[in-house]
């Protein structure tokens, strides 16, 4: 597994073969390919969380 970004908006992005993993607080939050999709998902997640008073759950976000 290769680290792509050490800190992209609070997430560590790793590449494992052709799959990218976004890790936050030692938990994989998103697993997607290509890289642009995972970065878009993180951006969307941050926007939703900034607009939310509660932490909410991650069930509405794509996992692959």
> Order of strands side by side in the largest beta sheet?
1-2-3-4
Number of strands: 4
Shape: globular
- What is the beta-strand fraction? 35-45%
Question: Which class best fits the helix and strand makeup?
Answer: alpha+beta
Note down, in words, how this protein is organized:
The chain is of the alpha+beta class. The chain has one domain. The protein contains one helix and four strands; from the N terminus they run E-E-E-E-H. Strands 1-2-3-4 form a four-stranded antiparallel beta sheet, with helices on one face. Strand 3 and strand 4 form a beta hairpin. It is globular, with a radius of gyration of 11 Å. It starts with a strand and ends in a 14-residue tail after the last helix. The model has no long low-confidence stretch (mean pLDDT 85).
SSE diagram, text form:
Layout: E1 2-8, E2 11-16, E3 19-24, E4 27-32, H1 35-50
Antiparallel strand pairs: 1-2, 2-3, 3-4
């Amino acid at each position: 597994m290769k680290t792509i970004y050490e800190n992209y908006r609070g997430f560590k992005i790793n590449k494992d073969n052709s799959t990218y993993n976004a890790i936050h607080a030692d938990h994989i939050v998103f697993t997607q390919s290509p890289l642009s999709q995972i970065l878009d998902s993180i951006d969307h997640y941050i926007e939703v969380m900034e607009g939310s008073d509660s932490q909410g759950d991650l069930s509405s976000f794509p996992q692959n």
